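batch job 7 of whatever, protein = DNA-directed RNA polymerase III subunit RPC5
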Amino acid sequence: MASGDDDDPVIQEIDVYLAKSLVEKLYLFQYPVRPGSMSYDNAAHLSARIKPKHQKVELEVAMDTMSPNYCRSKGEQIALNVDGTSSEDSNTYSTKMMDKQAFSSIQATTNTSRYAAAVFRKGELHLTPLQGILQMRPSFTYLDKADTKHREREAAIEAGDSSQDEAEDDVKQITVRFSRPESEQARQRRIQSYEFLQKKQAEEPWIHLHYHGVKDGRSEHERQYLYCQAMDTTENTELVKTPSEYLSMLMPPLAEEKVVKPMGPSNVLSMAQLRTLPLGDQVKTLMKNVKVMPFANLMGLLASGIDSTSVLRCIQQVALLVQGNWVVKSDVLYPKNTCSSHSGVPAEVLCRGRDFVMWRFTQERTLMRKEVAATIKLPPEDVKDFLEQMSVPRLNRGWEFLLPTDHDFVKKHPDVAQRQHMLWLGIQSKLEKVFNFSKDDFVPKKDAHMEPVHVSGDQRLKTAKDNAQEKHAILQRELDARRLKTSRPPVASGEANSSVQVKQEPMSDSEEPMDTSGSLTNGTVNGYPDSHNRHGGGNAPTPELQHFVRNIFLKHYVLSLSELKRLFNLHLASLPTGHAVYGHVTDRMLQDTILLSHCKQILVPFPPQSNAPADEQKVFGLWESGETFDKHRQVLFEIFMKNYRVRRNVIQSRLTQELGDAVTKTDVDRLLKECCTSLGGMWYLKGTVHS
């Protein structure tokens, strides 16, 4: 021993005992918003409950309503806001006054292994480990209840007597979805989410407790368990340690901390981590994530200074050249001994099917999904997955390859393009044997996006004159035959094989024409030749077109230009082959026909943030139908010329103001059903809510 120890003698030794009677039952309550001199020991505790697994405690403590510091008017107002005027057993404050206060706990610390409650008696120190340290703070859930009641009252006032009718009119579409198998990483993220923890905490049932005061006999009895019941050393082995063990407990040896990298979503790629990989792995990882990429974009994603020759060598190992762009190989996406997440089809079969789709895209820009599915005979989910990886759907044109043809790459690297072409020839021969087809079965279709042929103006003019001279007599005979045919009663005829479509003529630079590249199945595009329009005054709408527009508005009352064109094309598709009486129909002609059919354009003030197309913002309504109800519709249309959306009471009051007290609730219901749609308690003109 050092000589200095004589100056610091031991004056007392205290025996320490570990009490275990209240282990996992002892909690320390703290009141951080209350001074220590103002405890709640003498306050009446009305109720108590606990969720032991999540260490959640709630207490209700009575308030002294007779205290001079208590404001009775405020207490009564709070009780009125929370419970209202009704007297029910479920009311929060049964005395019509805020006479109690609630406390809710939060954990001060999640690790209480270093904390214990100590009691010193007769030279002995008794320690009981704490199960939890909870901070009790005032709970204001009664304010949430008051807000809920306030919102319910406001909603009832706004809805009025129409709430029931609107609920009956609203038909909601139910979509049934089947979830994919959850991965381990997704499951771990879900378990650690705040929403999951809140849900688990809400699932644990409350255990109701009985509160005993500090001086209660039961409390005195329970306090005795804070002392160790077995005083011999055999029961207190936790505190009997050798000096070396005790020292290691006080100063544990340093352990190397493992740096845990944050776990990101499986579909998120960290560029910082990517650039630490070898070049081949970088290219493979990028192609697996992107699926289709031009070579220039790939070079931009890689670190600067990398040789393009090395990148070309790497990418040819994991991707194939399709229309000048690189598409990841099928065996990279579907390794051996794996299967489809949709249907369970083996990887080998998936690779053959996907290679067929890639090969077809080397031949043409667009594919039809039905043709692909008929050849490779895989489930629709897998076929759609293949197409979504490398193409986008186009209206009436099938699936178009995702990227434009990269002619610059083909010109810059002809050796690579030639090598890839030879590789595709080998793949083609294998696919022909597997799927039993020949290349001639898939003749490439003419595509609008193919490189145009440059023809001079003089050549065009000469060709046009020659064609006009050759076809003038034929067109004149066809016109005469048609005039003769229209003067007779209509009979079924199969000599004409033509169809009519609305030709898209943008009214302004801001309008977008509809995609009409896919023709209907009952004939040639746009009906009769253009010469009919030139010689026969084709700009005037035909009586048949006026009849169709008039009938459609008598049925729907309000239509946007986009919806009218859709209904017209459906009508054309339903006509028998050879039935072509509408002539050459354009957007301008269709709008003129609408105005000639006693309809008007409703200039609805769409909000600035609306992303509705131009055709959907052109809304037309039936102004005159010959019945007395026209006045009701005209008043409604005038309202919507100034408002994008309105409430029912506004419409009803305006109708009463314009038409008198004769307007009934039935009239308003009929008007709203014919011309409007309801969403979120507001009424919109049909066709103006962009979905």
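notes: The longest strand covers residues 100-107.
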